[in-house]
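[job 0412] stage=fold_complex status=start
inputs:
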Amino acid sequence: MSDEMTTERGPGLVSSLGDVARRRFESKSVTTPVQGVGLEARGIHAWFGDRMVLEDMSLDFWSGTVTALIGPSGCGKSTFIRTLNRMHEFIPGAAMAGQVLLNGEDIYSSGTDVTKIRLKIGMVFQKPNPFPSMTISENVLAGLKLAQLKVDNKDDLLEECLERAGLWNEVKDRLSSYGGSLSGGQQQRLCIARSLAVRPEVLLMDEPCSALDPGSTLRIEETISHLAASMTIIIVTHNMQQAARVSDYTAFLLSDGGPGKMVEFGPTGEIFSRPKDIRTENYVTGRFG
Amino acid sequence: MTTAAMVKPSKPWQASPRQRFNSALVYIAAIVASYVIVAITPMKGKLAYAFVFFVAFIVFDFTLNLFSRGFPVAKDAIARAIVAAGICVAVFPILSIIATVIIRGYHGLHIGLFTHDMALNSVTDPVNQGGLLHALTGTAILVLVALILSVPLGILTAIYMTEIRGRFMKPIKFLVQAMSGVPSIVAGLFILSAVVYPITKGYSGFVGSLALSILMIPTVARTSEEVLLLIPNDLREAGVALGGTHWRTVAMVVVPAARSGLVTAMILGVARIAGETAPILLLTGGGDKVNGDPFHGPMGSLPFYIWKSYSVGTPESITRAWAAILVLLAIVLVLFVSARLLSERRSSK
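[job 0412] stage=fold_complex status=done
writing structure:
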């Protein structure tokens, strides 16, 4: 594609993504006030072996908002999101520096019960991963069993979680069939329902729609919008339309061959319509990346 | 009528009648050549026919393909012929063993085999007297005790190697692989010197099971390890991300997801030991009576019964031995087929 063509297309795309983000912002600001800082990342660095993959990320995630992390592959988005609920340490050779504060307390301070942290900060993965040995209802309630939590009424919780994940109507008649029998999009919403059952304050989503078709993607985006009222959501996405549609704030990460760094952070409307950094503008207009 | 209904399905990639005629000609030429060459040379016997047929087939097939389709196709034909010959060499002995066992064993089959033991009969009695019951129950008890001992140990070893991946993972992996090559007589002698002489001082089914466990644990551990490695890492991460501890995630997510594969591992372990003879000869003492107590007294088993009957050497006892071999083979076959069915059900899910 020639340079002229991209330049011509560029501003059009910027303004249309900006419009999408603004429409969302206007519809939302009336209904949900921002509730204070839920999760704060302070100077996060991450390494795999000797290689630094993430440098000095500091970000505040406000309660009741959706924050999107965008950037090209390999810029450290997924690594960053995994440091937020201590899943980073699962990879052999991983190391990190910095603090992650949940309600003001560092989740990495010694003596912290890491399983409690992961209960408060849930995660939805890139590939739908329902537990194959469990039925739909067992999948939703798996977190309770895994973390040995007690609830008074499991049926109510089951319905509530599936309802919030936008799956209840599709599966209410076959709760005892296996999770693997659902379609990919339904499986992913089942995984969202499963994360909701332990009542997390923060939900991390690592490219939750990258393996799904547009219809399922739309359903999940609706789910995200519903959930955002009551929790902090952080979503990694490669799809800039999606970032514009669902998020309140957007962070743009970039790696120039070395560790990934945050280039720009701001309200989603600003990032897509008036980016301050030329690299952000190039990325959101599709001129590179 | 739509056009789709008028179009006939065809398979243009299949061999044309002419090509099929040519390859039939190659077979016939090779057969004729093998007869002629064996007749005019001093070579003798079935093996000579097979060998000459194989060489002649390769030569004719190569020539035909070289002239009709060129050198690369001809090379391909040689490779195909060698692979086919390899399969025949590998499969023929197995089929031959099965056929021999069936032909020689079915004379000795009668319903009494499963209802009588040999307490009141000797192996030289007529074939329709006495039975295998003591050997069947003995083998069942030996295998069951070995199963109880080695399945938990084997699966836990596999979990250590795949889930915990501790500091000793490498040496343990090496040991398990080395152990699966241990000759069974060594396991028997080990139990004999470590348990029977110093402690029990006598035959029993239990010490036999101990020796069988030594042979079974590596099989169960290796197969379970392979099965657990197939479980996608996503599931482990999902379990931990839901607030489960490492152990609870393994117990509630990973192991249930691998359930049918672990059952397969168990069955393969049983098939490995069901026919083991050497440690049984050393440790269980045989016996002609049904013995339900694994801790006291000699205990019969199928391999022991086969060995004993065959070593007597009378026509009746040899028929008994072949019948017992047939029963043992059938049991192992059933185990393998059920293992295969279970693992197929897993992969189709």
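[job 0412] summary: The longest helix of chain B spans residues 71-105.
[job 0412] exit 0
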